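Running log. JK asked me to keep both predictions on one page so they can be read side by side. First protein, sequence followed by its tokens:
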Amino acid sequence: MTENKKWILKKRPIGLVDESNFDFIEEELPAVKDGEILIQNEYLSVDPTQRMWLTDMPGYLPPIQIDEVIRSSGMGKSHSIQK
């Protein structure tokens, strides 16, 4: 079983951001299909711009919507590849 862990936006922050704004979800991933690759994340970036994405104001990227995954940059290694 391969497990995916993700943070999603549950509600937009008013004032300071706290843990009640997010949900941490663990879920089983389906098997990798032909033409897909599974990347195991090793490093995840946390940047000031993520705070702007939590608002509903447009910026250089669209806001993160409620129940969407918190976007970030990262680095990882290939775990499974299906050709």
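And the second, directly underneath as requested:
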Amino acid sequence: MQDCEVSLNQILEARERRAALQRSTLSTYGGPLLCFTMNLAGPVKRSPLSDFAFLAGERMIQAQPFPVRQCIRLRQPTGMEAIYALEAEPHALKAAAMAMEESLPVGRLFDMDVIGPDGMKLPRLQPRPCLVCGGPAAPCARSRAHGLEAVQAATASLLEAFAADALGTAARDALVEEAQLTPKPGLIDLANNGAHRDMDLESFCRSAQALAPYFRQAVRIGLSHPGSGPAMEVLRPAGIAAEAAMLEATGGANTHKGLIYALGLLLCAMGQTLAGGGENYINHARQLANIGLPEALRRAKAAPCSHGERIYAHRGVLGARGEAAAGFPHAVQALEALRQYRSGATEHQARLLALVTSMAQLTDTNLLHRGGEAGLHLVQREARRILDLPLNQLEDALQALDRLCIERNLSPGGSADMLALALFLDRVEGWFL
């Protein structure tokens, strides 16, 4: 959705409608109610960025220990609204609401009012700070001390910083979760270093931490560059700098080069979506990946430098570039497998099976580099066999394949990247409208 200005009459009508809903819900459930809206100054009461923050606030409410008796949600041009009827002691609920408002900088924009069974709103114990100067908000608002433009700028800064931090942290955490998943054939995990000699789990975790600033930066690039071409002009050097940060953190080991590219595209695309670009982030990422692709492939064929470029020059396999340019089909496939297997397996087993699904299908350039077509086909064949086994044999089979991969120096790193992308996409599911 695009930002849309609303009139004073629309705002007043929304307040009356909300008050009527509160009275109706109180008469049905008896209270208390937690009524959640966003505090946005000016005529624009809703944007993709404010929706993103609102949905995060709802996740915080839903994580509270109070049983939900009823929830009413409204998505209006005048703003997102949610009314929760909860089983809670009113003052305990008010304390929880204030804690949520104060737990994040963006919580300054949360209005989480608690209405008791008597229909009265419970007061705050401390005044809220001003968005601009940090002093008490009420005197600044009454005197209009800072002006609408300054308040809107402070609001935009909070919303953008929250989106960049939330998405960047989700990307970093996905890298760590993928690395720690055990057992993974030929890959670094909690049990061993797989077929790798120059890196270990600790270096993977250092790399993930070193890349977190880049992940946040990629979101901000998307927020400030709605066009694919201009965005890529800024994202490319940021990715090169991130690769240098990775190498410094790992002592020269290439732990996440492919994911610097893939997650950089996705995070930038998410920033573009939150800036109101109109398309979903997978489509934005596909467009970003296709910027300059023909020329890049021509150079790779003429003078290949990296392992991936040599694989493309000799075998025509596109690798990470092709995956992104096609809209990450294997990452989406791993995500679908993860969600499918959750219905009959533990979360740990579902993640392992999502990895194995990718191993069975992906033309993994890491395997082609290390073992040629014979190595690739061996891992694909074994992965398909493992998918047919009962769950109680899964980990033993993966450990056996791990030993085989180590013996033959095979590492399905491309499939590990697809799992990391799937874990990231799964984590942010529901974060966007």
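Observation for JK regarding the second prediction: The mean pLDDT is 93.
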